[in-house]
Design brief:
Radius of gyration: 19 Å
Number of strands: 6
Order of helices and strands: EEHEEEEH
Largest sheet: 4 strands, antiparallel
Distance between the termini: 13 Å
Strand order of the largest sheet: 3-4-5-6
Number of helices: 2
Structural class: alpha+beta
């Protein structure tokens, strides 16, 4: 999850001033249109979370009613698997090791 924001597309048009060292002569007043999310954008974290949430829900996990960063799934054996998300850290817990490995793939 080290590059969580670098591969997601933007949902809206965002422009920024040219980065230092990038400005071309006679084009200093031009701006750059962003094509991908960047660290520091207000939209980045929310958009990434929405993508992650869709991913987890599509795999049959339930989002906790008490904390939107906790997901759980009841296994066929009756045991549960839990995923806790905090910024860019994740904790997966279950008595069933193969279920954890399957989720990680």
């Amino acid at each position: 999850m080290k590059t969580i924001f670098l591969h997601d597309d933007l949902e809206e048009e965002i422009y920024m001033t040219q980065p230092l060292g990038f400005k071309a002569t006679w084009k200093e007043k031009l701006v750059c249109k962003l094509e991908k999310l960047l660290y520091g954008l207000k939209q980045s974290t929310r958009q990434w979370y929405n993508r992650f949430d869709k991913f987890m829900m599509a795999r049959g996990y339930t989002r906790s009613l008490f904390d939107p960063c906790v997901y759980f799934h009841k296994l066929l054996s009756g045991e549960y698997i839990y995923l806790l998300l905090y910024i860019d850290d994740m904790l997966i817990s279950s008595k069933n090791r193969s279920s954890i490995d399957k989720l990680k793939v």
